[in-house]
Amino acid sequence: MPRFSVSRFATILLVTTLAAAILAVPVQAQKLDRAKLADVFAAAHRAGRFDGVAVITVDGKTVLASALGFSNRKTMTPMRPGTIFRLGSLTKQVTALLVMQQVSTGRIQLEQTAGSILKTLPEGVGRVTIRQLLSHVSGLPNPSDGPEDKVPPFYLRTAPSARDLSESGLRFCAGTPKREPGGQFEYNNCDYLVLGALLESLSGKSYGELVRERVIRPLGLHSWTLAPANPSRAPRTAEGYAADGSPDPVQNPATYGAAGALLGSALDVAKWNTALLDHRLLPAQATETMFRADPKLYGEALGSWAYDSDVTAPQLHVIERQGDIGSTRLLSLLLPGTRASIVIIANAERADLFNTYSKQGLGYQVLKAWFGRD
């Protein structure tokens, strides 16, 4: 593991302090205590463990949006619900959905090899199946390999080809495999860079065009965009800060491509989550396949993790997606049984968002405050 029903908008409570803003909407839900949930985020912020934005929705309606701290500490720019972040590996969930759309229409199959779609792939990459790429058991080279204290050169590129999946991603990812496919799990951005190239080959369109046509426009996700190859042309995003408070080292989000190049707000991530729950972009059966966990792979589904949390009885089913680039951290929790979504994005490395499954971290604290048995 890597890491109710809602009433209408009768009243809106907006509380603003120097570095905090909380937007809450009354809900008709037995277990939803907005003040208690807001206190969880406020306490984490006071402890220096959360600067960022959190959005909770039920039945597609926002019931809590909390913005705490600064998106830029140097300029003292406060966080706002609409602050733009690097969404990191949430992009993988989007890529998985685009792939499952093709599976749902019968155009491709999960057990089909990548080489049967993109004929130019060398044999070592071409024999990997779509399912293996989605599940991180491809055995492909990993662009994140290298010293932990340095940004790998792969993510520093700024040439126009930095965003080109066929020219940039596949040149590296089509190198000599590290191991046989279908074996050891290894979280690897190359898996989704290759999937992005396959989607481009199938559609004749760029990955960016596909995301805009099939996700952003249908859902009205106005803040979402893919990072441009030239970082100076990217929308201003929240700065990331290491545990010692220093700004993140430079890297180019565009180089993450179909594995992590999305930029956008937590509010629009919540809209995306609601669309997944409502099957707006993918039929229910295909969604169930995408979110079905493989117990042999630590609960890895296709582009997400899925597990049951014992925070309540009966157990609460959770679909989790994490993301991080530098010190920006993202946690997205889908709760299908309650039609709820929790999105937390922080711009500080000290934020603990990646241990929900092991009953730790801010995500678990939120689940416990909402659903836990007192």
Largest beta-sheet characterization: 8 strands, antiparallel
Run of helices and strands = EEHEEEEEHHHHHHEEHHEEEEH
Q: What gross morphology would you assign? A: globular
CATH class term of the domain at 90-258: Alpha Beta
Cα-based radius of gyration, to the nearest Å? 20 Å
Spans of at least 5 consecutive residues with low confidence: 1-30
Q: How would you classify the helix and strand content by structural class?
A: alpha+beta
Q: Provide the spatial order of strands within the biggest beta sheet.
A: 1-2-4-3-13-12-11-10
Topology, please?
Layout: E1 13-17, E2 20-24, H1 34-46, E3 52-58, E4 61-68, E5 70-72, E6 77-78, E7 84-86, H2 90-104, H3 123-126, H4 130-134, H5 165-173, H6 189-203, H7 207-219, E8 225-226, E9 262-265, H8 266-278, H9 284-290, E10 305-309, E11 316-325, E12 328-335, E13 340-346, H10 361-371
Antiparallel strand pairs: 1-2, 2-4, 3-4, 3-13, 5-6, 7-9, 8-9, 10-11, 11-12, 12-13
Helix pairs in contact: 1-10, 2-6, 5-6
What this model shows, in words?
With 374 residues, this protein is α+β, with helices and mostly antiparallel strands. The chain has a domain at 90-258: 3-Layer(aba) Sandwich (Beta-lactamase). Helices cover 28% and strands 18% of the residues. The chain is built from ten helices and 13 strands. The strands form three sheets. It has an eight-stranded antiparallel β-sheet, sandwiched between helices. Strand 5 and strand 6 (77-78) form a beta hairpin. It starts with 12 loop residues before the first strand and ends with a helix.
